[in-house]
Amino acid sequence: METLSIMDRVKTFEDALALADEKTRAEYLKSVEGFNTPDEIAYKKLKLITKVVNEGWVADYTDFTQRKYYLWGGFLYYGAVSELLYAYCDFSSGGASVSVGSRLNFKSREIAEYVGNHF
Predict the structure, then answer these.
(1) For residue range 80-117, what is the model confidence (pLDDT) as tens digits?
(2) Alpha carbon of residue 117 to chain centroid
(3) How many C-beta atoms surround the C-beta of residue 30 within 10 A?
(4) Do 90 and 97 form a contact (C-beta atoms < 8 A)?
């Protein structure tokens, strides 16, 4: 019998929740109890999806040779060193900054592109 890839098995958030291990599922359910804004819930869902599609892979920030793929602003990036992506723009009347957390790294380019396009 042919085994489906993780991208074939996770088409919805509900698929990811069903495939998550018991601890991950319990952590997610506890994290959305009480007050959460819609953006916080979306981020928590994306963290769970990321964990499930990585199938146990966890970025090792002490390994400078390990590639870590992440999406930011609609573009795919990879890096081996950085734990956080941080961009800062400052003008005389104000400033803005954006960062991407390390929890949204993917083990492969294909998975990063799939999650970015699908979710």
Answers:
(1) 544 444 445 555 555 554 444 566 889 998 999 899 88
(2) 13
(3) 9
(4) no
Question: Count of CB atoms within 10 A of residue 108's CB?
Answer: 15
**For the chain, what's the residue count?**
119
Helix (H, G, I), strand (E, B) or coil at 5: coil
CA-to-CA distance for 96 and 20, rounded, in angstroms?
A: 36
DSSP SS3 for 12: coil
Helices 109-118 and 38-53, axial angle in degrees (round to 10): 150
pTM for this predicted structure: 0.76
DSSP code, position 82: -
Task: Specify the 3-state DSSP secondary structure of 94.
Answer: strand
* Region of residue 4 (phi > 0: left; psi between -120 and 50: alpha; otherwise: beta): beta
Q: According to the 3-state scheme, what is the secondary structure of 26-72?
A: HHHHHHCCCCCCHHHHHHHHHHHHHHHHCCCCCCCCCCCCCCEEEEE
Antiparallel, parallel or unpaired: β 94-100 and 68-72 = unpaired
